[in-house]
């Protein structure tokens, strides 16, 4: 019985940490340049997939922004040309929708990563194992949302519940306007977390970035819904009541 009590106490402890729903940031630094993303982020309950409208079978891959002489200098940092991420900020690995998955040397790593530059380029999809209530990200080399018409769509169990056009980030008066965002060649911008409240939804289980042109993404921030903590809390409370009797 002592063991059971220990489990109850632990469940109670989980309530206080999980219910606060701390943001989780994924920076992709565990990957190497050209590494294909499959299930590397299952530990944070996130899977990432890509669709390239011009290249069937594309998968998202890592792009090391610290390298020189890559196939796309616009993705090379850290001296970003513009945007609210200061020049000198080391973003390390980014993720891209690739225009090729060529692996001539057969080491399982894409030899020469390059992002798809067609307009539109494709979709980058993030799927979560739990309901999330916030999403933010960094975007590199978005040349112009008016030209590229990128948007971000939120889905709850497969149903579309909200869409934010990238134009909103640079249009005064829009819900998600940020006067510090500057798009353009070799730009780097941090898009602040959009909360479910601000989106007018209860939460979401996947996010699709409809990528309108060239560009790379990084520092994906998600805020888990406190619901799972709440359920643990109820369970923990019931267990404590049982223990008291
Ligand atoms: Ca990174
Ligand atoms: Ca290779
Ligand atoms: Ca490119
Ligand atoms: Ca560019």
Structural class designation: alpha+beta
> Which stretches are low in confidence, meaning pLDDT under 50 for 5 or more residues running?
1-18, 229-241
Written as H for each helix and E for each strand, in order along the chain, the element string is HEEEEEHEEEHEEH
Q: Name the bound molecules.
A: calcium ion
C-alpha Rg (nearest Å): 20 Å
Mean pLDDT comes to 88
CATH class of the largest domain: Mainly Beta
- What level of helicity do the residues show? 10-25%
Give the tally of β-strands.
10
* Distance linking N and C termini: 14 Å
Largest sheet: 8 strands, antiparallel
Q: Explain this structure to me?
A:
The chain is α+β, with helices and mostly antiparallel strands. The chain has two domains: 1-20 and 227-245, no CATH class; 21-225, Jelly Rolls (Sandwich). The protein is built from four helices and ten strands. Strand 6 and strand 7 form a beta hairpin. Helix 1 runs antiparallel to helix 4. The longest helix is centred in the last third of the chain and has 18 residues, at 227-244. Bound molecules: calcium ion (4 copies). One calcium ion binds next to loops. One calcium ion (CA) binds next to strand 4.
């Amino acid at each position: 019985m002592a063991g059971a009590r220990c489990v109850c106490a632990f469940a109670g402890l989980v309530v206080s940490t999980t219910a606060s729903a701390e943001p989780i940031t994924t920076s992709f630094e565990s990957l190497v340049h050209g590494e294909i993303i499959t299930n590397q982020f299952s530990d944070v309950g996130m899977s990432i997939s890509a669709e390239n409208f011009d290249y069937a079978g594309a998968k998202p891959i890592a792009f090391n922004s610290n390298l020189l002489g890559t196939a796309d200098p616009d993705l090379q940092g850290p001296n970003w040309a513009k945007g609210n991420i200061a020049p000198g900020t080391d973003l390390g690995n980014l993720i891209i929708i690739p225009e090729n998955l060529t692996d001539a040397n057969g080491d399982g790593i894409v030899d020469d990563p390059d992002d798809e530059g067609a307009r539109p380029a494709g979709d980058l999809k993030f799927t979560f194992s739990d309901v999330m209530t916030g999403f933010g990200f960094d975007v590199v080399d978005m040349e112009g949302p008016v030209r590229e018409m990128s948007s971000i769509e939120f889905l709850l169990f497969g149903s579309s519940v909200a869409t934010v056009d990238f134009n909103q980030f640079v249009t005064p008066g829009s819900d998600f306007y940020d006067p510090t965002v500057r798009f353009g060649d070799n730009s780097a911008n941090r898009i602040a977390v959009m909360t479910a409240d601000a989106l007018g939804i209860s939460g979401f289980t996947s996010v699709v970035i409809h990528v309108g042109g060239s560009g790379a993404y990084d520092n994906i921030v998600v805020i888990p819904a406190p619901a799972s903590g709440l359920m643990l809390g109820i369970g923990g409370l019931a267990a404590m009541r049982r223990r008291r009797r």
